[in-house]
Each structure stands twice: as structure tokens, then as C-alpha cells.
């Protein structure tokens, strides 16, 4: 849970999210620029990429968190000139926004999911602005999250096998806080190994190590 709290604990308007520039500002809404504090080392972006703007005070913003999430995701789709249906569901523990359609959503997802992760953080901040009670927000597109989970768990299993077979710690590739959480959860019941995170963002990674008998 620690990694998720690091990702989601930022107050509204304090994270920088990078998306390709296609057009200018979102139509139908007045925006202001978000101030960068928490994502101080964003991924390298090619020329022409633009920071996603944050909603300013004084606009007609939906009262319900789920509708705020829908508003942000639909606005980003408009900005990227992508078509798609945004389905939003809300449970006791999280809000899930899923984009489905026939377009290629590689632009929305980004390299290693960096863009959709940034959008997910922006949605979290917008959804619970000014509210005490909060829950997780998940943004998905065309089944990306499940495909990525399958990839991560397969890599985690290989790392565990290497750690046990060679009796050594194995350092996995750097990944986001959410992806590290997937690995920790997947291997927590795996006999003979332990996992922990080390390093600083954006190079923080999971280490899989054999348990040492006491």
C-alpha cells in the first residue's frame, strides 16, 4: 500500500502530466496549468509535448468523483483527437474508467504506460479535490492494464526462479509505483523469496531476494 500512497497522496494541482500536443486547450472548459511538485523527474518527452492542464476554480465541475473522472478522460481523448467510449464504474474501494473503441490507443497509453499512468494520477487528483474520503482511481484503455499485469507477473515469476536458483538477489527493471505494487502482491505468497523496493524515482525498482534462514 505504501507505493500506492506515494502515487496518490498528492494534493490536487501539484503533479505534472505529459501528453503529446494535438491542438491547444480542451474545448468547453477553462483550464489553468498544474504546478510540478511531485513528479519532479518526468519521462523524457519529444519536442512539442505539452503539460496536461488542471481545472481552475470557478468552473462548472461535476460534484461526483466518478463524473469528474469521466470528464477528465473524455477531455484528454478530445485533446488527442481519439474516439472512444468511456465507461466509468464505482465500487467501495475504487473508481474504474475504461476506454473502449476502434482507435489505436498507443498514444494514450504511452511508452511503458507512462502517459496513461499520468492521466490516472490527474484523474485521482481531480476526482477528490476538496474531499476527505478518497479511493483508488484506475484508468484503462483497450485492456492494457490486464495485459501489463500478465507481463509483470511473468517477469516476477522469472525473477523469483532466478533468485532461488542462484541464491542471489535479482533486481527488476525500474517501474512505476503501481507496477511495483503488482509485483509485491503477486510474490508475497511465493515461498522462499521476499521483495522490496529500492532506489529513487523514476528509477525505483523491485528487488526479489531469497529468504535467509534465521
Brief digest:
The protein is α+β, with helices and mostly antiparallel strands and 214 residues long. The chain has helices at 2-8, 65-79, 106-109, 114-127, 144-166, 177-187, and strands at 18-20, 31-32, 49-51, 54-55, 85-90, 94-100, 136-141, 170-171, 193-198, 205-210. β9 (193-198) and β10 (205-210) form a beta hairpin.
Question: How would you explain this protein's 3D organization?
Answer:
It is built from 6 helices and 10 strands; from the N terminus they run αββββαββααβαβαββ. With 214 residues, it is an alpha+beta fold. It has 2 domains: 141 residues, GMP Synthetase, Chain A, domain 3; 65 residues, Ribosomal Protein S8, Chain: A, domain 1. A 3-stranded mixed β-sheet has the order 5-6-7. Strand 5 and strand 6 form a beta hairpin. Helix 1 runs antiparallel to helix 6, helix 2 packs antiparallel against helix 4 and helix 5 crosses helix 6. It is elongated and about 60 Å long. The two termini are 27 Å apart. The N terminus is likely disordered.
Amino acid at each position: 500500500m505504501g507505493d500506492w500512497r506515494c502515487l496518490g497522496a498528492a494534493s490536487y494541482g501539484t503533479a505534472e502530466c505529459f501528453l503529446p500536443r494535438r491542438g491547444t486547450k480542451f474545448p468547453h472548459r477553462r483550464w489553468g496549468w498544474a504546478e510540478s511538485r511531485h513528479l519532479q523527474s518526468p519521462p523524457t518527452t519529444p519536442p512539442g509535448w505539452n503539460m496536461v492542464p488542471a481545472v481552475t476554480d470557478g468552473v462548472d465541475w461535476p460534484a461526483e468523483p466518478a463524473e469528474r473522472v469521466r470528464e477528465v478522460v473524455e477531455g484528454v481523448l478530445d485533446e488527442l483527437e481519439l474516439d472512444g467510449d468511456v465507461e466509468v464504474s464505482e465500487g467501495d474501494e475504487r473508481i474504474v474508467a475504461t476506454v473502449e473503441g476502434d482507435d489505436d490507443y498507443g498514444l494514450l497509453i504511452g511508452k511503458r504506460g507512462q502517459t496513461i499512468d499520468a492521466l490516472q494520477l490527474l484523474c485521482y487528483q481531480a476526482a477528490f479535490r476538496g474531499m476527505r474520503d478518497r479511493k483508488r482511481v484506475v484508468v484503462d484503455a483497450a485492456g492494457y492494464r490486464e495485459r501489463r499485469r500478465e507481463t509483470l507477473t511473468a517477469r516476477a515469476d522469472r525473477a523469483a526462479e532466478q533468485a532461488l536458483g542462484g541464491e542471489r538477489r535479482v533486481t527488476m527493471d525500474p517501474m512505476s509505483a503501481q507496477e511495483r505494487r503488482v509485483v509485491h502482491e503477486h510474490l508475497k505468497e511465493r515461498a522462499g523469496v521476499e521483495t522490496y523496493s529500492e532506489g529513487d524515482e523514476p528509477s525505483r525498482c523491485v528487488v526479489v531476494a531469497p529468504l535467509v534462514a534465521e
